[in-house]
Design a protein that fits this description.
This protein has about 290 residues and is α/β, with parallel strands linked by helices. It is built from eleven helices and ten strands. Helices cover about 40% and strands about 15% of the residues. α2 (about 50-60) links the parallel β2 and β3. Bound molecules: S-adenosylmethionine.
Length: about 290
């Protein structure tokens, strides 16, 4: 493998035996770079998540080249052949349906295999929904956590929601429109309605929308709407001092919840989640 990372001498034309990881638009096809178009046109073949999606770009820019499908269903079967082709000197571009290959799509698998096999990789960077949402959120963006799609399994999901509730950094999450309401309600439970948040919908597309400010507002906004399109959620981190919850406030909240009819156990569970504490720590306060 060529471990010399000074690649400024690289030519604009694709080189033999190199895997090109090519960023494509997340909606607006004009967001593709000249360099990406040049690579897509001149590599030996283009491996794409869905050939129909990639054809839209190829057709718009009058590019014809060989396309093969490479997606989460066939990646394990396809990787050995792609690696073999690269070793035999072909140049191959990998693209996903949208954005940067490797960010929540099987681009990650081919990059790992290429590295293990000593194959040179070059990234032609392009749009990424996470970064596009982050920079338009107005939330702190120099240091952030990207969670991708949250796990479906309750225990794993709650672990991450708890981390988000305590995290000082901005968090970015991908979500499907079908599950957005569920995610917002979970965030409400773990982070409280005042937490600042921005839901970016259909970034770079005709009906692009940025919905903020805090969780209560956002839940209200989507309450009676049909939610469609692609969604990225950006959540502000907490202030450092919030990590040391005020015991007198927690005690008062506990009393209020019990007076409102919750059992001690349910009220403690709720407050433990809200404050990022263990249930036993809440018991110990009383
Ligand atoms: N590789 C892509 C990237 O670089 O952003 C992400 C692929 S992931 C399979 C698709 C998810 O990205 C969508 O479900 C959505 O959460 C987010 N996404 C993609 N395009 C978007 C857009 N135009 N607006 C908002 N979110 C988007």
């Amino acid at each position: 493998m060529n471990n010399n990372f000074s690649l400024s001498h690289r030519k604009e034309e694709p080189e033999n035996g190199v895997l090109y990881i090519v960023g494509t638009p997340i909606g607006n096809l004009n967001d593709i770079s000249q360099r990406a178009l040049n690579i897509l046109k001149n590599v030996s073949l283009v491996a794409c998540e869905d050939t129909r999606q990639t054809k839209k770009i190829m057709n718009k820019f009058n590019i014809t080249n060989k396309l093969i499908s490479f997606n989460k269903h066939n990646s394990l079967i396809k990787i050995p052949k792609i690696v073999k082709d690269l070793k035999e000197g072909k140049s191959i571009a990998i693209v996903s349906d949208a954005g940067m290959p490797g960010i929540c799509d099987p681009g990650e698998d081919i990059a790992r295999s290429a590295k293990l096999e000593g194959i040179d990789m070059i990234c032609v960077p392009g749009a990424c929904a996470a970064i596009t949402a982050l920079v338009t959120s107005g939330l702190p963006s120099s240091s952030f956590v990207f969670e991708g799609f949250l796990p479906k399994k309750k225990i794993d999901r709650e672990k991450i929601l708890l981390e988000i509730s305590k995290n000082e950094k901005t968090t970015i999450i991908y979500e499907s429109p079908k599950r957005l309401r569920k995610l917002l309600n979970e965030l409400l439970e773990f982070c409280g309605g005042d937490r600042e948040i921005m839901v970016a919908r259909e970034l770079t597309k005709k009906f692009e929308e940025h919905v903020g400010n805090n969780l209560n507002n956002v839940i209200d906004f989507f309450r009676d709407k049909d939610i469609i399109g692609e969604i990225t959620v950006v959540i502000k981190g907490i202030k450092k001092r919030d990590l040391n919850p005020d015991k007198s406030i927690i005690k008062k909240d506990l009393n209020d919840l019990i007076n409102a009819g919750l059992s001690l156990s349910a009220a403690s569970k709720y407050l433990a989640k809200k404050n990022g504490l263990k249930k036993s720590e809440i018991y110990n306060m009383i």
